[in-house]
Design a protein that fits this description.
69 residues, two-stranded antiparallel sheet, mainly beta, single chain, 2 helices
Length: 69
């Protein structure tokens, strides 16, 4: 059986401003090589704080299918 979980997805338009990193309380986002932010899906709980904080509006919470244990 699969569980559906929300997870942040950052578009390729990211300019690595770091705003999402500051707002993520789980430490699930990091700026990769100063180019764009990336999400660690194992840490992301889909709370939406990064999505609301992104000044460019390019972060979207999407449904991610996970296998149940």
């Amino acid at each position: 059986m699969a569980n559906i979980k929300k997870n942040a997805c950052i578009g390729k338009e990211c300019v690595a401003c770091g705003t999402c990193v500051k707002y993520c309380k789980r430490g699930a986002i990091a700026v990769h090589k100063g180019v764009r932010a990336v999400v660690d899906s194992a840490l992301c709980v889909g709370c939406g704080l990064c999505e609301k904080a992104c000044p460019a509006g390019i972060i979207k919470n999407v449904e991610k299918e996970e296998e149940s244990k």
